[in-house]
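Same chain as my last thread, 147 residues:
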Amino acid sequence: MSDKRFSLLETAIDVGVERRALDHAAAGAYASFEGWVRNHNDGRAVLRLDYQAYAPLAADEGEAILAEAAGRFAVREVRCVHRVGRLAIGDLAVWVGASADHRDAAFAACRWIIDEVKRRVPIWKNEHYADGESGWLHPDNTPVGSG
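reply #2:
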């Protein structure tokens, strides 16, 4: 098992493997978040997504976020995996997990981690719409090139 807590994958996320990495004899709680590819966004029908990342910076920033979470919340372990490449509707795009002595810390850490990943990690998605158009979006769902 890798020492890395954050990873980018081109293949399906194995939630069982990720969850087992959070096992700790002192943990009394485990919480996770799963983000799936949905079939719509902003009133438009979506057929699929393509995720791209600036991998070296994404890995470093993802690790930094998880280290911050470990210091900020009373957790035993935290992990996050984000997909890159082509994803279909219903695919698991991002997974976050936390183990802690108590549930409040595990829930809070998961929420904070996904919010920070969306805000700070350089991952972009290209939504392919039913009308034949496509559009690149930042992790916060704003169009690339806006603002």
